[in-house]
């Protein structure tokens, strides 16, 4: 999931207002635009739709930037806004979040599940090898609670490290690590395995 389609009117609107926005906004845009695009693309399965949605989100953030900066956690506020817009777009298309039928989502789930399977193999070895064909790990990923799902997709599918994931979501690194551990335990339980307390690798 690299590269983006040409700028649309949302991006052009940002460029037209470049002299009006403070450097802090552009620093925020530089830091999070690609991550937002990749997450939206995973969910929507369409590069043009994802690019348009993310650009429109940043236009809205630019309009309310003064209010954004007064938030206790601006990153968490912006992340929530993005997710609300993605959910609204999926609803308009008649699809739920974590829509398994999109090719982008399927690829992301597979990318996320591969390292999880490796972790399970390390813990359970032959037991996982026997189960993995029927374990339903892809479906189990889609059933994760929202925050657990986001952490697993951002880290395992999109490849963001713990620190970057924490910044994107507007939470602390300890929250990302504990959420990741909880997600792996839930996935293991869904497929009939029991992980110990220390199976998650720390970064």
UniProtKB/TrEMBL annotation:
The lineage of its organism: Bacteria, Bacillati, Actinomycetota, Actinomycetes, Kitasatosporales. Keywords: DNA-binding, Sigma factor, Transcription, Transcription regulation. Pfam families: Sigma70_r4_2. Residues 137-187 form the RNA polymerase sigma factor 70 region 4 type domain. InterPro entries: RNA_pol_sigma-70-like, RNA_pol_sigma70_r4_t2, RNA_pol_sigma_r3/r4-like, WH-like_DNA-bd_sf. This is RNA polymerase sigma factor 70 region 4 type 2 domain-containing protein. Belongs to the sigma-70 factor family. ECF subfamily.
């Amino acid at each position: 999931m690299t590269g983006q389609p040409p700028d649309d009117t949302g991006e052009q609107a940002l460029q037209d207002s470049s002299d009006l926005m403070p450097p802090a906004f552009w620093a925020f845009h530089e830091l999070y635009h690609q991550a937002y695009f990749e997450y939206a693309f995973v969910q929507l399965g369409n590069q043009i739709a994802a690019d348009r949605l993310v650009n429109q989100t940043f236009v809205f953030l630019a309009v309310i930037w003064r209010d954004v900066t007064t938030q206790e956690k601006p990153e968490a506020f912006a992340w929530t806004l993005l997710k609300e817009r993605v959910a609204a777009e999926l609803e308009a298309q008649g699809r739920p979040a974590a829509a398994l039928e999109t090719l982008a989502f399927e690829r992301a789930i597979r990318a996320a599940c591969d390292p999880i399977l490796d972790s399970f193999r390390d813990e359970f070895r032959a037991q996982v090898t026997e189960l993995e064909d029927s374990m339903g790990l892809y479906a189990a990923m889609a059933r994760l609670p929202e925050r657990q799902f986001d952490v697993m997709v951002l880290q395992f599918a999109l490849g963001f490290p713990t620190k970057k994931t924490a910044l994107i979501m507007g939470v602390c690194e300890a929250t990302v690590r504990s959420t990741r551990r909880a997600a792996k335990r839930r996935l293991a339980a869904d497929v009939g395995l029991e992980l110990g307390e220390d199976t998650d690798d720390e970064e």
